[in-house]
Amino acid sequence: MTSVSGNRGNGDGAEFVQAVLARLGPIETFAKWFYLFLAGSVALMGIAIGAGGSEPSFTGVLLIWSVSLAVSVASTMVGALLGFLFGIPRSLQHQPAGAPAGGDAAKQPDGKPKLAGLQAFRSNTSLEEISDWLTKIIIGIGLVQFQTFVAYLYKAALLAAGFVAAKGINAGADEQLLNYTPGFSSPFFFALILSSLIAGCLFVYLETRTRLTLLFVSAEKAVKEPDERLANSAERPVAADPPTDAAGRHGPPNRPAPATQDDKEIAKLSRERLVDPKEIVGWALAQARVGNYDVAEDALRDALQRAPEDDEIRLRIADVRRLRGNFAGSIDMINEVLGRTRDPARKFQLLRWTLRAALYVSEPRGFEQAINISDFLMKENANSTDPWPYFWRAAAFGQKYRWLQHNAGTADALKATRKEALDAVQKTIELSPDYDSGVRVLLREVFDPVTEKSDPDEDDLEVFKEDDEFREAIYKGKPSG
To answer: Rounded to whole angstroms, how far apart are CA atoms 322 and 359?
Structure first.
């Protein structure tokens, strides 16, 4: 018997299978002894009838043995068919599309809600439907026509007994069928039919509910392995720096997570075979990790249409958009999630990410958006000890100051913008006094990218490079020498 891997509760799936089969063992042993007893009874009856008459005949013994065997096999097969129909396992259903997700879902370490696990797909259910249909019909008719059913069984026993006795049968009307006919072994055959029928039904029912079910699960698992890879793909980040990342990084936050061998294999799967939104998400994120961003976003939007309440899919779309450099589109998608989020901690993390992403949106929309977000964060989290939102706020005002210079900004506007930028820089340093901390290093690099040998495109505070107050604040605490 092929073992079934996977978990059941806190135990190992293989151990569970072995436990089931171990408990089934005594029943199978009883079945073997039962049929041996039945065979012994047939043997004794054959000898008693064939050899006990006025003219003992070995042919008579063989005749009753063969008829008994045929009756027993036929009854057992009918019972087995009933047991099989009653015991056919039902496939697992899909997780409903509207399963809880979003703000109230369980969260991963990066703050995102965890995708619900994929359920076993529903296989071809024609046999299951037939089984359900026939089971109801058989039970209904059996309850209403029970006496007639028993009468027909006894008539079958009479026919078998008449064949053995080589005598004609006049069964008469149905109400006379249960009358005993002397000289016929009909009670023996009736008992043989009933016992074989009931035993075949019970034993095959138990085998169907255990061994056949395990066989179906094993076969389904072999087909489901790609779906398990899809589930794992859906849980892994698509970008190397998720929105909750607090480490300092150069450049736009749009580095893809490294593609694995599973990602490459998943990307080769046919899109048409995927129906469940979670499967589509796993396939789409694998496509994104191998660089197929257009295909990934199209698939994620399809998944969102199938599960419009799933905010996790919206965040995945935002991730893919930022990988494409579409920060404005990424922010728009995150704003949809923000409008539906009630969890303050999660809202803070999303706003924090949006603040950073807004710095890479074209001016003036980008810095205006960043300033508005930082205003909200400063108001709602006045006691926060996180220096990064203040650093990004300073960068946004640096962008605004430079934009005002190139767009005829008034002296008052330039003065007010400079003050806001300086205040944000000072607050950053206050919350991160360590000169070599990540935020302090990045602060120096965007202030003087040439001297600090930084990315020349990361120069949001370079506009204040000649401003002594900024230089004094940014290089505060510099080690001597």
So the answer is: 12
